[in-house]
Amino acid sequence: MGECSTLPNIKEKAKTLINMVKDKEATVIVHRHADPDAVASASPFMVMFSAKGYAPQGLSAQGKRVAEYLGLEFKEGEPKEELLIIVDTASSSQLPGISLQNREYLRIDHHVEGDLRPFMVYPQASSTSEIVALAFRSLGIRLPKEVAEALMAGIIYDSKTFRLAKPTTFTAMEYLSKLGNVSKAFSILGEQREEDISVKMAKVKACERLIHRKVKDFIIGVTEIGAHESAVAKALLSIGLDVVFVVREDKDEVRVYARASPRAQKYLDLAKFLSELAEEMGGKGGGHKGAAGAVLPKIEYEKLVNKLLGRASRRLAEAMRSESGSER
Ligand SMILES: [Mn+2]
């Protein structure tokens, strides 16, 4: 049995870093619209060493959730402190409004490219949070429970829930999961956030009203709902439909919201499909290949369903035929 994977020279660098943080007035800088990895990486310095935090142009929505969980505030503008710790950032273009000329800074990061001088940079790590965690681990410094949970959230976020995990990711997780709860880390990111009952009901009703058809190995369907069309369409795609039309009848018009799975988008361009249909019917439509919408004049629901399913199946079948024809 070998030792846990860790990062080369992390202990020496961690020692230098902590000595400097203790010695000087320090501030942590995160990249603009900082994500959970950036905010979590900054957190041990802010919580344990009272470093200030700077976030040019503020935090992302999920970055905010991490900051709120820890009660941390990030300022905008030019930092006055002596020592700058730059986390999760490789390039000065990610730090608008901050001048690094003649400033002393230490960069902790997992990105390679960029004009900022590296200090504790490990591109083999999947997140900056795991580098920071392994730095504190190497010195035997015990992180507070909430900081450990934030760092796990940063790791989960940047490793795409471990799909991009590296061996060091699990060394960091092994260490952090002894200090905090993994489930808390997920809930900080909002994955267990309870959906509103009205959204849940819309999804259930949409399933109940679903009219579907199989075209080769694609499933296409139409449903009707009074609200939450995009959540409904997303839910139907997640249960296996490839093309979904969600119809909402308004007073004098009918709205259609459509979504297609990536593999169906190869054969059916929803923006084109809906704009053509709308034009014929005297309405308006457009959007993207995989997500589009249309506003149509009033039409009997059954007729609309037949139109949508009929046309979409024909288009799909034709596109697949011409593809297999061209392969021959
Ligand atoms: Mn990152």
Description:
This protein has two domains: 180 residues, inorganic pyrophosphatase (n-terminal core) (Alpha-Beta Complex); 131 residues, Diaminopimelate Epimerase, Chain A, domain 1 (Roll), CATH 3.10.310. The mean pLDDT is 94. Strands 6-7-8-9-11-10 form a six-stranded mixed β-sheet, sandwiched between helices. A five-stranded parallel β-sheet has the order 2-1-3-4-5, covered by helices on one side. The chain contains twelve helices and eleven strands. The chain is an alpha/beta fold and 328 residues long. Helix 2 runs antiparallel to helix 5 and helix 4 packs antiparallel against helix 5. Manganese (II) ion binds next to loops.
Question: What is the class of the largest domain in the CATH system?
Answer: Alpha Beta
Q: Termini distance?
A: 54 Å
User: What series of H and E elements makes up the topology?
Assistant: HEHEHEEEHHHHHEEHEEHHEEH
> What is the subunit organization of this protein?
single chain
Report the average pLDDT across residues: 94
CATH architecture of the largest domain: Alpha-Beta Complex
Morphology:
elongated
Q: In what order do the strands lie side by side in the largest sheet?
A: 6-7-8-9-11-10
| Helix percentage | 40-55%
Q: What small molecules accompany the polymer chains?
A: manganese (II) ion
Total beta-strand segments: 11
Low-pLDDT runs: none
- Sketch the major β-sheet: 6 strands, mixed
The rounded Rg comes to 26 Å
Q: Could you name the CATH homologous superfamily of the largest domain?
A: inorganic pyrophosphatase (n-terminal core)
**Proportion of residues in β-strands:** 15-25%
Structural class: alpha/beta
> Number of DSSP helices?
12
